[in-house]
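FORM 7B: Structural annotation worksheet

SECTION A. Query
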Amino acid sequence: MGPLAAAFVSFTALTSAASIPRLHAKRQDSQLRDEYDFVVVGGGTSGLTVADRLTEAFPEKNVLVIEYGDVQYAPGTFDPPTDWITPHPDAAATWSFNSLPNPDMANTTAFVKAGQVVGGSSAVNGMFFDRGSRFDYDAWAEVGGPEFEQSSDKWDWAGIFPFFKKSVTFTEPPADVAEKYNYTWDVSAYGDDSTPIYSSWSAFQWADQPVLYKAWQEIGINPATECAGGDKEGICWVPASQHPITARRSHAGLGHYEDVLPRANYDLLVQHQVVRVVYPNGPSDGPPLVEARSLADDHLFNVTVNAEVIVSAGALHTPTVLQRSGIGPASFLDSAGIPVTLDLPGVGSNFQDHSGPSITWNYSQPYTDFFPLPSDMVNNATFKADAVAGFDEEPARGPYMLAGGNSAIFVSLPHVTADHGEITAMIRAMATDGTASSYLPVDLRTVPAMVAGYEAQLLTLADLLDNPEAPSLETPWATSGPSQAAAPSFLLHPLSRGTVRLDAADPLGPPVLDYRAGSNPVDVEIHLAHVRFLRGLLETPTMKARGATETAPGEEVAGSDEALEGYVRSRSTLSFMHPCCTAAMLPEERGGVVGPDLKVHGAEGLRVVDMSIIPLLPGAHLSATAYAVGEKAADIIIQEWKAKGQ
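SECTION B. Predicted structure
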């Protein structure tokens, strides 16, 4: 049986059992067992991956996942009835956050969303399923220092790449589709096709997609054969997290929950919030109890745990679960009136996300030679009706297969600007001359561990940014016109560090996000380099032939260093929805929260597994990395308990 046929069989079995998850999901604590071996806090991308693997490896052990959201259908980013712009009316539930104003970025705020549903953000994201370069993950190991080098749990590229391969079933495109769009790939970057988390390439592209593809080549960016195998500099084709037959969204709520049911030892409690973990006899006597709250009636109860608790509530909620548990910066906990269980200043610190401004332009030459374009979804009823019909065919066809697009450039700083050496010299100087601490949040500037960790990160990032094979800039695209086209610039490796703190006035409510974007001035220098580089796009023969006319920042603004800096500070998107790093995997003396085994420093029977544990933001959208982290974490946990004979 070929991979497409096998995938189709799997999907058919899944949809025919669509009622099973709702029947199995528990909604009251009276439905729970007296005790559990493992409790997973959060049914998101990494959490469900861990729960799936634990219930599979230990059929005699019971696993409970507690999820704030519910089981919902999760349409793709671009599924009927939407056009290219309008959000899906039936999109799964999300958390929506606005950050505090960012004084270094013209007091603008960051807007970020996260999944509030079984499947987490994998059920609501843009479905862009890429991985970082090998150098991004090698940097995780480097910043951990000698302690991490000596650990048997390796988090460099060699240590995590097998789990990227394990985490997904990749389906090659049909030969005619590959030839039509010049898709390239290397199957050695993928695994044995045994995990029902799918990635595939669309059999559709907007007609003008090749315009930018050609223009990028004209400014010296070369196509890459495969961008998921560790080498990523260049023009990349990126698969989407979608089923290869139906083009429906593939997410953790399907592949790591619905598709593995029924399992007698796998319980999911929905519509409940984990308030905190409780150590009645102190953090050295674990595992802790888990205190949870019913969203229906505010009823509080404890869950008894025999083996361990795995917090997987995401980069924005894991810190608040820990902080409500008295695990976090002692000064903050004291100010919030929370008794201190463990003074770990890194909890909720080290907050990072991708950000950046865009360049925009119009075309003065006719665009009538391109069909179809996204505008045809609005203006051409016949085309729209055929697109809807095509999405319901098996295999699916037409524009609704495209999700949000699957092409992007990834460019290193040495290829962006000749001034890259001056920029990295500035970073190394602040890491060694004692000024790094001045760029941290005020309450962390005198905490030796946080300063030491930040200095180590800066030195690692300087090396990363000096590497001509390690991307600093991302620009995704799928279409470019005909009016008000844009090329966003993603700052892939920010130096600024923010915080996530619970709201003392509403401790069970949304956290307070302080992005502190631009607080390290080198970030602005890199933004400027990215914008200057992208403006060169409009000088290429392809773009000139189309009469591309820059609308922002524009010649007048770009001609003044001061004005261009003002443009960057006032017109940047401060979150591309990739928050991370708020419970960092670092030694405690470097401000870390967890070690390479993902155990919380000083807390027995407590681990963290989600995007909060990564110490540095990789040059990638985070979904694929979240699956790989979940897979590797599960392997670590399974091997440890097997070694104990349990």
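SECTION C. Observations
The two ends are 37 Å apart (CA to CA). The longest strand covers residues 300-311.

SECTION D. Sign-off
Analyst initials: ____
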